[in-house]
Amino acid sequence: MRRALVVLALIAGAPPAAAQSIYTVELLRDLPAGGNLFALIEAAQPEITTDRFNSGGLNAGSAEKAGAFLASWSQTEYRIGDVPISSPVDGTPMLFPELAWWKGINVATGVMPSDGSATALAMSLEPRTASDRWTTSVEMTTSGGALSQASSPDRPPAIQALDNWTQVSALISGRTLHGRLGLVAGGARSAATTVVRNLDAPLQQTGSAFVNASFAISADQTLGALAWVSDDSFHSQATLRHGDRWRVFGGYTDRNIESARPSSGRLTADRLADGPIGLLVDRGGHEKRFIAGGRSAKQLTRHALTFGADIERTSFAAAPTFTGAIEERVDGVPARIWRFSSPGLASHRRALAVNVFAADHISITSHITLDASLRFSSADGSTHAAAQGIHWKSLSPAAYLYWDLSTEWQLKLLTGVSRLPDQLKLGLLAYGDPAAPTADIYRWNGGPLSGAPLIGRVGPGTGGDAAFTRIDPELRRPMMDQFALGIEGRPVPKLKVSILGLARRQSPQIHGVNIGVPISGYTTFTIHDDNADLVKPDDDQLLTIYNRRPEMFASDRYLLTNPDLMSATMASVVVSGELTTKYVYFRMAGTGLLSGGAAGSRGFTAVENDLAMTGELFADPNAATYARGQLFNDRMYTIKTLSVVTLPRDIRVGVIGRYQDGQPFSRMVIVPGLNQGTEAVRGFATGRSRFTFRSTLDVRLQKRVAAGGAALDVFLDTYNLLNMSNEVEEYVVTGPRFRETTAVQPPRSFHLGARITF
Length: 758
Known about the structure:
Layout: E1 5-7, H1 9-12, E2 20-24, H2 25-30, H3 37-44, E3 48-50, E4 66-68, E5 77-80, E6 83-84, E7 102-108, E8 122-127, E9 135-144, E10 161-176, E11 181-196, E12 199-200, E13 204-216, E14 221-230, E15 233-242, E16 246-258, E17 264-270, H4 271-274, E18 284-299, E19 303-318, E20 323-330, E21 333-341, E22 347-363, E23 368-383, E24 390-404, E25 412-421, E26 438-443, E27 454-458, E28 469-471, E29 479-492, E30 495-507, E31 511-514, E32 522-529, E33 541-548, E34 558-561, E35 568-580, E36 584-598, E37 628-629, E38 637-647, E39 651-660, E40 664-665, E41 668-671, E42 679-682, E43 689-690, E44 694-707, E45 710-719, E46 727-730, E47 741-744, E48 749-757
């Protein structure tokens, strides 16, 4: 318990007040997380924002989009030790991490590790290692029937509610060959049915198997190997280690995503409810990543040197794209028909990344140290038969100074700067890909398509014309610059308090620019709008609307480039307190954050209000109105607590509580009758309004019964104990329904479980 949650400095030499935490095996055992890493991180880590609720068995087996502190969720890095398992396409984890396999989870959101590639959020999973004697653990948890509560008929529908859920896992651990070979092996299976907005969702199932082995070659050298298999993914890695002096490693991850979306036909979609139309034709594909590298360390009198290098190959073979028509409506109003076509070619995208770094921990005095590092990284991406790829090289320096003030309160100061580059995601290489989809867009009034004008064309494929969509040969890499200032102290020995301030700026950004139809290809007119205050006329405005000129129909051409755009910025403060006693562990942490950046597309979701989404911002001037605002992962104020209390008779109570400000959004104005069809235009900057805050309280009550060499833990988990039904979405369109609640947070649910260890 005493080491249940500690700053990463205690285990990896990281600095104080650095917004870095570890969740130990004891916390994973005692907190209500439903066997789901995402549920734990979403509810307990104050800096992190996710695109869904994960607690209580929701979203079994499916990965979330998680981000923190300005950076896009697509730049989050998931690792097992030295080996990344993030998707090379969109950054989500390629396997669903069951909690049973891990003895620790490191979360970094402030000062990032010098050996990683994340700009703002990194999650490192530490596998379980073999116990000294053979042990077996079997755990089962279930919910459903009277244990799961349906949405209240007096309220709007829950965004998601649990119908029933079952999870079973088993783990065996021990040593053989006179203790030289350690083995950990396990398997897990979960199944859940949920109700989404009062509609039954398909059964979600996930299964996985896990093996971690370590062999002592000699007193100094060990060879470790890990394999992990799930329903659609496979991962393996190996590490040869010579004490703390050096290690070499390699890893391979493979995921084949089979989409449930149809390959052809005629579909319907509402732009405001279903998101950007171009994303609806993504049907997954086959992702691979292979990495090999090494690390070495050398200790001198005042210097602790670390060197590292790795080379990584990633690839993506896209599944055959959708061919057919999508009827687009905007808030129910017919707008356009998108006719998608595919050239029938196989899309193969690949990238090669090389990273080399050197870091030095310098003891300037007995109380002042400096961590300095320099990282060189190159990324070269290409697509089969494409005219242009992406080629980046960058140097990333970092320097952080730590000062132990040697006061009664053990005050320690941190300050420093760093620069980190974005990872190259293979999704960018869809631009200019001859095998990627293209669409002809027709204006549509709800009737027959015959006679409707062809108003535009979109990629990202070339449609047989290399000049239609292409990548700028001078495309620059987005870089994240950071300044940090923090202080940590212990007013009393058992209480640690820290404050960390961060300022970040990201520039340049990458977008697809419609160079064939510039802003001069539109006429403009204005409409009266109430702006942010719908009652008082003080801020009323004339909202500019862009109407495409008929002579510019179907003249579209796109360039993936770095348009002139103000940098994305963020300022944040993280305040945390941690109390550790013999019977109580308690942590409370909160954030205050304000970001400013341009959203890739109109809307408030993670695939719209995100600076890394290369959507419609520079493809349609109506999407640029009030585009700069607060981004998806900006929740302004959050407070999250966790606690584990040990009571007499081997009873433990684990609690996770959170308050999180609502999601930022902008009011949308629906403008019919345009030459290009009905459009939605923002009425004010995103973030001038927010949905209601999220608030949940999750509790685990656990009792242990020991007999002989066996132990039985029986537990009851309660999610959303107070049955809060705060809204999580609103109707955002101008009119009498504006700000009407359309979805609330999941209702209360109970889980019964047992774990036997022998």
